[in-house]
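ok trying again, last paste got cut off:
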Amino acid sequence: MKTLFTNTRTYFLLSLSSTAIGLSLSKPLIALGLFGLFIIWLIDGDVLLKFKAFFTNKIALLLSSIYFLTLLGLIYTTNFDFAIDDVRRKIPLFFFPFFLSGLTPLSQKELALVLKIYIVGVLAATFWSLFIYLGGLHIAIVDDRELSRFNSHIRFGLEIALALFFSGYYLVKSSSIKSRLFWFCSAGWLLFSLFLFNLFSGTIVLFLTITILLLVFGFTAKHNRLKFLFLSFFAVSTISLYVVIKSAINNFYSCNKVEQLKEIPFTKEGNPYLKNAKTINSTYKENGYFVEKNIALDEFATAWNTRSKFDFNGKDLKNQDIKNTLIRFVTSKGQRKDKIAINKLSNEEVKAIENGISNYKYLKMNGFSVRLHQIIWEYDSYKNGRNSNGHSVFMRWEYCKTAIKIIKNNLFLGVGTGDVQDAFDLQYIKGNSALEPQHRLRAHNQYLTYGVSFGILGLVWFLVYLFYPIFKTSLYKNYNYLTFFSIIILSMITEDTLETQVGINFFVFFNTIFLLSIKNKPEES
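nice, full thing came through this time. structure:
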């Protein structure tokens, strides 16, 4: 008789749990889980039967096919160093469907265990971030992105959003008050942590996923009452999101009505304000005031250097030119850039400028509002002809435009597995891009990245790979899978999700266990 520790099923679940918890806490734990699955697949026996199970499972074959697309791209690639690294990094895209198709599928109880362990891992990561946020380890946090200690801040936000949806599911499903209290607190903390750690992308994906869920379940609900309820909430959430964004845009542009400072030739110290073709024709504004006007540069610099240890010609703590941060900050207050303005700065404001904060309003705004304001400011600057260097949203716009040009030049087969960055570098040069060398990156859009790599044919297959299984298995009716799927497809709009180790494993882990390893019929709404 097999005991708990001699039963391969126990080690199978331990391996899955290692990967689940490693997604938010430790890359080595992910690798350990993958290795554990490989060992279990071998020692569980019936290898030929497992091969047969894989080749007769259409969903498993489709899920593994995307890896073979990467291998096919080797045929016409030229940069084999990058290509081989890409092939190595994407092995889990084949590994998970191949090995899990040959093992006994997860029961609903086992799946619940794995999902709950994942939630625990995310909770642990957020508590560690909270510890750092509160001053633990005496680490000075300048950029909130540094609070994501184990992954990129974008991936961290996605992981929290998914764990939040899972927690909500178990809150509804729990029968005991104690259990419901735990899941309620878990969901509440995860929601709060998105705002506390300023995980803007995760917050946006969370709310967009909620609208997708309401829309899908509104149309698929069997009872008219439920259908009306879901669709009503969808309408309310959509309108609310529109109102928030519209209000932020209106508030931003309402500043254009401010009365401009009268331009005078000299400061009270007798120093001249800069006046040339650039300052006269400048349309660059901060809170409605012209940034490049009313600057007495030498006086301004000298006065700043008496207030701060950060040199005027140096960098702030976000590695931005501190003079630009300072000029924008003082402008945002509606003041001339001279000694008087520096003397009026409070100690708190001096510290904020040193930390890279460029607008005095940000000191009293929440993180979500700040990020929304920054995005609108980026758009306004871009619209008025300023380059997008250092501005994440509109650099992504440049990346996407560059990707589309590459796809047009390599329409059917793309540039191959290893030549993606080389193709971008060449296109930036051809297009005389205004992006600085350190900002000339890849698409930051997974769909376009597949188009660049494998052409229109590869992109079409990637879309089939993503969307066919959810309709074939009717898992769009399954709350947990639909939340995961929505988060993933949304993340791929602004990120190359399948180009990093954690991103690949995050996607393939949940996609595979939901599509291949659920023994029982998925619960419907």
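cool. Residues 520-525 have pLDDT under 50 and may be disordered. The CA atoms of residues 7 and 212 lie 41 Å apart.
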